[in-house]
Design goal:
This protein is mostly helical and 115 residues long. It has one domain: Globins (Globin-like), CATH 1.10.490.10. It contains five helices and no strands. The longest helix has 21 residues. The structure holds protoporphyrin IX containing FE (HEM).
Length: 115
């Protein structure tokens, strides 16, 4: 099947759901298993919607949200590899590339600020 680009908020929802399905069986699942996903996933969706679609906004401080988790370098590698894998599995195009690049640059900045 030919892959399309990320074209709508519904595409973001599918991306994030598939990504979390992977996170929840990964070696970094302990960060996520206790979250209420019905509350958490819409907030993650809204962050990624704001990345791609200009009419969306995300007003939270992402660094602060991650500051108390004691994240490790290896955790970021796994998080990012699974994120990229999920995007590539589902989508192809400019928005898919923007999304992967944004994930990589934020993961890099988070590591610089938090580790
Ligand atoms: C080692 C890597 C990471 C781990 C283990 C991790 C884990 C988490 C956890 C447990 C939460 C829930 C926090 C809470 O509700 O108290 C969260 C929130 C979030 N994370 Fe991460 N994260 C990682 C990296 C990233 C990166 C690189 C990004 C963005 C590119 C990101 C985007 C988000 C977003 C958008 C939220 C939702 C914040 C909100 O509630 O508005 N995370 N993360």
């Amino acid at each position: 099947m030919t892959k399309t680009d990320i074209l709508s908020p519904a595409d973001i929802t599918k991306l994030i759901k598939t990504f979390y399905d992977k996170l929840l069986v990964s070696s970094i699942k302990h960060y996520f298993v206790h979250l209420n996903l019905n509350e958490h996933l819409p907030r993650v969706d809204s962050f990624w919607n704001a990345t791609i679609f200009p009419e969306y906004a995300y007003g939270q401080n992402l660094m602060e949200r991650h500051a108390q988790m004691n994240l490790q370098k290896e955790d970021f590698k796994i998080w990012l590899a699974l994120f990229w894998e999920t995007v590539d599995e589902l989508y192809s195009g400019e928005n898919a590339e923007v999304t992967k690049n944004r994930a990589a640059s934020i993961a890099y900045i988070m590591q610089k600020k938090l580790l």
